[in-house]
Design a protein that fits this description.
Shape: globular
Number of strands: 0
Radius of gyration: 21 Å
Low-confidence stretches: 1-5
Distance between the termini: 72 Å
Length: about 325
């Protein structure tokens, strides 16, 4: 009597994508992320957030930073939302869009829209919690403390450290999705592997990473909002407004995600059912591309002055 071998999900993925193919795709998408980072025009995107988004809604944020005593705590809620929205396409937030494939690929159950809501809850919750935790810190710092961390050398160093670490984590996660660390993952118990392979857990981890974006964000509009919020000298107020800011920074991402589910939900369901390995591959590529962008833009380019190619070529 012979025992029929049942192919596992991992075996199926590794059979469909050879080691060579996974390496080529992985390093190829990382190279693309580096190219985008090298040619990133921060003047354009930062200016869009500052002058178009914030300027046309609440006005000059630099002037507003010191007006807490005049405008009060209520205006801080609006300031928080606009500061988050203004940061949408900045170099410290654009990689959030790399999380869309992971969100979309988590909605592979029978009821796509219902699972989409579950994915959003799992994603948004850590974004809000991390923001609130940082807001407590800002509240304890007060205006003098925030003024100190808002100094350019400090905020740039903070951005370099935070985003470089996030980038490395995303690259590691991307290669993990590609099946390159089997010897490491096999050291963990089946229950642990099952927990971390759950779509809900993955989406929550993505939310945690996006929540950390605010911790490293050097964007002037955000720093001016911090100065406003810190004037209250209240950890509770800081937590609330930073939670609102967290929602603001992912508003466009969520709108794109819901549009994708609404208009292509059925197709996504059939795709993930008929070709289950492709969503995993897409998620890995997004993580690797976004991670490479962060590591190059905030780490290598700053340390070795090898970025800002568009500026150096005189293109902009």
């Amino acid at each position: 009597m012979t025992t029929k071998h049942t192919e596992t999900v991992e075996d199926s993925f590794l059979r469909e994508y050879s080691t060579k193919k996974r390496l080529l795709w992985g390093f190829g998408i990382m190279a693309l992320g580096i190219i985008i980072a090298g040619f990133w025009n921060y003047h354009l995107v930062d200016g869009f957030g500052k002058n178009i988004v914030a300027g046309n809604t609440i006005g000059n944020t630099e002037s507003l930073a010191g007006t807490y005593n005049e405008n009060g705590s209520g205006f801080g809620f609006i300031f928080a939302a606009i500061a988050g929205l203004a940061a949408t396409f900045t170099a410290c937030n654009c990689v959030a869009f790399a999380m869309i494939p992971g969100l979309a690929c988590s909605t592979d159950k029978a009821t796509t829209r219902q699972s989409a809501i579950s994915a959003i809850i799992a994603f948004v919750t850590p974004v809000v919690l991390v923001g609130a935790a940082y807001g407590i810190f800002v509240g304890f710092l007060g205006p003098e403390g925030v003024s100190a961390i808002n100094e350019r050398p400090v905020r740039i160093a903070q951005a370099q450290a935070v985003f470089s670490i996030i980038g490395v984590a995303m690259i590691f996660w991307g290669f993990l999705e590609l099946g390159f660390f089997k010897k490491l993952t096999q050291r963990f118990s089946p229950l642990t592997r099952q927990f971390f392979s759950s779509p809900t857990t993955k989406v929550a981890l993505m939310g945690f990473l996006v929540g950390l974006f605010a911790v490293g964000r050097p964007f002037p509009v955000f720093r001016q909002f911090l100065a406003y919020a810190a004037t209250a000298e209240s950890p509770t107020y800081g937590a609330i407004v930073m939670a609102i800011h967290g929602l603001g920074q992912i508003t466009v991402l969520l709108l794109l995600f819901f549009s994708l589910v609404y208009f292509a939900g059925e197709r996504m369901m059939h795709w993930s059912t008929e070709k289950p390995n492709q969503p995993r591959m897409l998620t890995a590529m997004a993580l690797l591309g976004g991670g490479a962008y962060f590591v190059f833009y905030w780490g290598l380019a700053f340390v070795y002055d090898i970025g800002r190619w568009g500026f150096k070529l005189g293109w902009y």
